[in-house]
């Protein structure tokens, strides 16, 4: 029976680690599948043995959990993670040279996979993500609308595509490669992804990655520790806070004008105006206060004169945020307000407002 333990392999570069890992896991998967088939045949034969000296039900029990009944849907998926996409491309190329032809899928970001010219043109990852989400919700990206139909195309399901092939095929079939890869993931035998998709819980959630029962391979694992550190770290610069503050000031000003206008309109029994943002002035002002308090709390941190910076316990970040009223209790209502403001700003016409600071803050709080 399978032992379900972790293994660490160390071997010099160029000794064939990748190929070993790929072939052994894929072979094991096939063995697993054969075992299930053998059991099913045995059940149908109703006790009649094809080979009396070797009962069918005993075939390949090493691959599965012995006597526990197993189904084809129990065959574990393989998750193959490496540091970068270019490393994954090399792994996928090695796979192409083997006899195995599993269904594969490679996960990437919108920045790498989006083919919508209007969204691609946006500067910064945040804006691209935001604009894409809006388009997906309104079903106004035709590349997205084609995904459902195209995700059953044999050419796309059965070919072994790296990230570049995915973009090429997405363009060819006029289907969004980003959502295509997410859809191919459902049926994939092996899923390739950079570490951060696997190690960052937010990313796992957004890609709907369930690790339960999977075989996880971390290639180049000496980089993992650093990546874990990075995935739970963030930087928030004075520029980010200033940009967030500017955006909030504009929203406050515009909303105040609407309130003023409505006071006049109400007096003359005229229809009330709306800015499209359904928030009270006080709630917007509260966000501004939080930003100011956060700025003050950061400013108040005493730095040594030699410019070496300070290092504190990890839990210190919660104390710092609490000084700006950002706590586990206020988190969800704060995020909701930020989301409303960001949505309002993205749908607003006229002068461009930089929302990167607000986006960053929202990500950090999340
Ligand atoms: S759905 Fe795909 S192609 Fe359309 S904007 Fe989003 S990532 Fe880009």
Automatic annotation (TrEMBL):
UniProt record, GO biological process: negative regulation of DNA recombination; negative regulation of t-circle formation; regulation of double-strand break repair via homologous recombination; telomeric loop disassembly
One GO CC annotation: nucleus
One example GO MF annotation: hydrolase activity, acting on acid anhydrides, in phosphorus-containing anhydrides
CDD domains: DEAHc_FancJ
A Pfam family matched in the record: DEAD_2
SUPFAM superfamilies for this protein: P-loop containing nucleoside triphosphate hydrolases
InterPro entries: DinG/Rad3-like, Helic_SF1/SF2_ATP-bd_DinG/Rad3, Helicase-like_DEXD_c2, P-loop_NTPase, RAD3-like_helicase_DEAD, Rtel1_ARCH
Domain Helicase ATP-binding, first and last residues per copy: 1-265
Keywords in alphabetical order: ATP-binding, Helicase, Hydrolase, Nucleotide-binding
Coiled-coil spans in chain: none
UniProt-recorded name of the protein: RTEL1 helicase
Biological classification of the source: Eukaryota, Metazoa, Chordata, Craniata, Vertebrata
Gene symbol of the encoding locus: Rtel1
């Amino acid at each position: 029976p399978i032992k379900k333990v972790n293994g660490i392999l160390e071997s010099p570069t160029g000794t064939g680690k990748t190929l070993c890992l790929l072939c052994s896991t894929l072979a094991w998967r096939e063995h697993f599948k054969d075992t299930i088939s053998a059991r099913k045949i045995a059940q149908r034969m109703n006790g009649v043995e094809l080979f009396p000296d070797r009962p069918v039900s005993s075939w390949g029990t090493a691959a599965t959990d012995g006597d526990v009944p197993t189904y084809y849907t129990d065959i574990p998926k393989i998750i193959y993670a490496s540091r970068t996409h270019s490393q994954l491309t090399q792994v996928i190329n090695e796979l192409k040279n083997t006899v195995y032809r599993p269904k594969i899928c490679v996960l990437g970001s919108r920045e790498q996979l989006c083919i919508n010219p209007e969204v691609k043109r946006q500067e910064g990852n945040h804006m691209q993500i935001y604009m894409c989400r809006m388009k997906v919700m309104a079903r106004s990206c035709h590349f997205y609308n084609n995904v459902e139909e195209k995700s059953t195309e044999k050419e796309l399901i059965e070919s072994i595509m790296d990230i570049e092939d995915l973009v090429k095929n997405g363009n060819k079939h006029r289907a969004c490669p980003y959502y295509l890869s997410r859809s191919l993931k459902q049926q994939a035998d092996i899923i390739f992804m950079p570490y951060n998709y696997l190690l960052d819980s937010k990313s796992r959630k957004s890609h709907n990655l369930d690790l339960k029962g999977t075989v996880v391979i971390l290639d180049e694992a000496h980089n993992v520790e650093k990546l874990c550190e990075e995935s739970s770290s963030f930087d928030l610069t004075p520029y980010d806070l200033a940009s967030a503050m500017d955006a909030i000031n504009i929203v406050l000003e515009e909303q105040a004008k609407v309130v003023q206008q409505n006071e006049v309109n109400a007096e003359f029994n005229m229809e009330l105006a709306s800015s499209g943002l359904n928030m009270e002035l006080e709630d917007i002002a509260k966000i501004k206060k939080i930003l100011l308090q956060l700025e003050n709390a950061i400013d108040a941190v005493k730095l040594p004169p030699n410019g070496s910076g300070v290092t504190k316990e990890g839990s210190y970040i919660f104390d710092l945020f609490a000084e700006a009223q950002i706590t586990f209790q206020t988190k969800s209502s704060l995020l909701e307000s930020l989301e409303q403001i960001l949505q309002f700003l993205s749908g607003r016409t006229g002068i461009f407002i930089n929302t990167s600071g607000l986006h960053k803050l929202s990500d950090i709080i999340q």
